[in-house]
Give the backbone structure.
Amino acid sequence: MKRVTLTEIHEHPIAQKYVKRAGLAHAISAAYHAFHIAKDFDVNPDLAVKAAFLHDIGHYTWYRNGQWDYNLYKENDIHAIKGAERAHKLLIRLDENPVSAKEISLAILLHTDSYLPERGIQREPLQRVVALADEADEEPGGAHHYRNITDEKAAEMIKKLDDKVVTFLNKQTPKDQSAS
Ligand SMILES: [Fe+2]
Ligand SMILES: [Fe+2]
């Protein structure tokens, strides 16, 4: 099965609309962190970069009287739930392997516990990688959502990360591949 690339995901209108809403620079940066952290957890970097790139795709803009309202967001946010579903739909449309699409979607669902009534989730390795990658790029006051990046720079960085993933996957021995 041909690998669905991050570039294809990034170029899809669903990602263009919703990943940009939560911050394209944050999504790319989290994906790079995920690539590196995945190695420490022996996690497939292909799944890690896709989940990290899409982790905030479920964000909604909470405005009151034309202003972003953080309290409204904290009270009502379910971006991880919405994102898990939205990312899954996008991946399936792009013909992603359904097992991978489900794993990515679950990692998005569990990337934050801010929407859960009780804390203390036990995360599996891929889910931990994505949560850590998100945290690694966080800035006080949610500033990481507002960093800017040009479309050209974004496309270039995403292509570079695709190449890193392919190089890594090609270096794996057949035994490694059957284990992942
Ligand atoms: Fe998030
Ligand atoms: Fe995030």
